[in-house]
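Cross-check.
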Amino acid sequence: MKRIATLAASAALVIAASVFATRSHAADLVATGTPAPAFTLPSQDSPAVSLSDYKGKWVVLYFYPKDKTQGCTIEAHNFQRDLDKYKALNAVVLGVSLDSADSHRSFCSKESLTFKLLADTDHKVGDAYGVTVHDMPGMKFEARETVLISPSGKVAKTWDKVDPAVHSEEVLAAISSMKK
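Predicted model, tokenized:
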């Protein structure tokens, strides 16, 4: 009986994984060296945030799946921890997800986050940047991907497989090496 339950659970996982895999909308991230697509999105604070607000700065545009989830919280805390290092490099950090501005406000309040989280609820900015969307029954979320935008407004580097535990250090290293 236990073996049947285990087999049933395994079958359910395989079916869920196949549904998940077939419902992902994979895209190629925007190409390095191309102009970064312009955007304006609401954040946890008003007014809305535009890419043009940061002309002349490095912009770390990191896409993440969902507010208040484990990996996203780890990644956000690491960016928060390193904000002074980003500031010293003339860089800003902007997080983007499909969550609402209200969800971002709650997440920032709970986790003491002070950088901007942008609400891309219709995935227009994600589409413009080529960010993968995963669409599961009852849940849709963006992949954990990052685009580094140079002070001249061009895409300097992209990451499509991000480890939230070390990503902030990777981005800082990339900016440091490009500034030389």
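The helical segments are 2-22, 70-81, 83-88, 101-111, 124-129, 167-179. The chain has a mean pLDDT of 87. Passed to J.P. for a second look.
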